[in-house]
C-alpha cells in the first residue's frame, strides 16, 4: 500500500512522519528530495540560476533558499516557473525511491508530500492521510517555529490549500491539536484499520 502523508505548514506532519519512521515504515520524503535535486553542480540548480539570476546562489555554489523563497512567495508567476522546473525532477526521484522500497519487500510505503493536493499527486498514492490543526494553532506554531511576523505567517498559510479542503480529500485525518500521545493513538488506529504493516 502506498500512503500519501500530507498536511500544511506547521500542522505537525513531520511529527507524524517521525512516528511512522520509528515504526519501521519506509518514507519517501518530498522535502528531502527537493533539497537533493538542487545540490551544487546539479543540472536543475543551473537552470534555476539561469531563470532567477545569480542572487539565488550562495558563494559556495549552493541554493540560497531564503532569497529564492522571498522572490517566489510574493510573485505567483515566478512561483509557477520554479515549480515547473522543480516538480518533474522531484516526482521522478520520488517514484524511483518508492519502487526501490517495494522491490526491497516493504508492504507499505509512506510518501511524505507536503503539497500533495496542490501538485495534484493523488494518483501517486492509494490512501491519503492528512495531518490537520485549527488555523489559530497552525499560525501560533508557525510564528514560534520560524520567528515570523503575523503577516508573514498568514501569507505562508494562504499560499497553501486550506486544511479543511485537504481534509475533504483525505481517506483519514489526524487532528493534531492535542498531545503527542493523542496524535499517536489516532495514527495507530488508522494504520490498523487500513491493515498497513511495514513488512
Would you spell out the secondary-structure blueprint of this structure?
Blueprint: E1 2-6, H1 13-22, E2 27-29, H2 30-36, H3 43-52, H4 65-73, H5 76-103, E3 109-112, E4 127-132, H6 135-146, H7 150-158, H8 163-168, E5 172-175, H9 180-194
Parallel strand pairs: 1-3, 1-4, 2-3, 4-5
Helix pairs in contact: 3-5, 6-7
Can you walk me through this structure?
53% of the residues lie in helices and 11% in strands. It has 199 residues and is α/β, with parallel strands linked by helices. Strands 2-3-1-4-5 form a five-stranded parallel sheet, sandwiched between helices. Helix 3 packs antiparallel against helix 5 and helix 6 packs across helix 7. The longest helix is centred in the middle third of the chain and has 28 residues. The chain is globular and about 50 Å long. The relative contact order is 0.21.
Q: What's the tally of helices?
A: 9
Task: Indicate the radius of gyration in whole angstroms.
Answer: 17 Å
**What is the global morphology?**
globular
What is the residue-averaged pLDDT?
94
Strand order of the largest sheet: 2-3-1-4-5
Structural class, from secondary structure content?
Answer: alpha/beta
| Biggest sheet descriptor | 5 strands, parallel
Helix content: 40-55%
N- to C-terminal separation?
Answer: 11 Å
Would you list the SSEs in sequence order as H and E? EHEHHHHEEHHHEH
* Beta-strand percentage range: 5-15%
Ranges where pLDDT stays below 50 over 5 or more residues in a row are none
Give me the count of strands: 5
Task: Give the tags.
9 helices; 199 residues; single chain; five-stranded parallel β-sheet; alpha/beta; 5 strands
Amino acid at each position: 500500500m502506498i500512503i500519501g502523508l500530507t498536511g500544511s505548514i506547521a500542522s505537525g506532519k513531520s511529527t507524524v512522519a517521525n512516528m511512522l519512521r520509528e515504526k519501521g515504515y519506509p518514507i519517501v520524503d518530498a522535502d528531502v528530495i527537493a533539497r537533493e535535486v538542487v545540490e551544487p553542480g546539479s543540472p536543475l540548480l543551473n537552470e534555476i540560476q539561469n531563470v532567477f539570476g545569480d542572487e539565488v546562489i550562495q558563494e559556495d555554489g549552493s541554493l540560497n533558499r531564503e532569497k529564492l523563497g522571498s522572490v517566489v512567495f510574493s510573485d505567483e508567476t515566478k512561483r509557477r516557473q520554479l515549480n515547473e522546473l522543480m516538480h518533474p525532477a522531484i516526482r521522478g526521484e520520488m517514484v524511483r525511491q518508492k519502487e526501490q522500497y517495494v522491490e526491497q519487500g516493504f508492504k507499505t510505503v509512506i510518501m511524505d508530500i507536503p503539497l500533495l493536493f496542490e501538485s495534484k499527486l493523488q494518483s501517486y498514492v492509494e490512501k491519503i492521510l492528512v495531518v490537520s490543526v485549527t488555523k489559530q494553532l497552525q499560525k501560533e506554531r508557525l510564528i514560534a517555529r520560524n520567528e515570523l511576523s503575523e503577516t508573514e505567517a498568514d501569507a505562508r498559510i494562504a499560499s497553501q490549500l486550506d486544511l479543511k479542503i485537504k481534509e475533504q480529500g483525505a481517506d483519514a485525518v489526524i487532528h493534531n491539536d492535542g498531545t503527542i500521545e493523542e496524535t499517536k493513538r489516532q495514527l495507530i488506529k488508522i494504520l490498523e484499520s487500513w491493515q498497513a504493516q511495514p513488512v
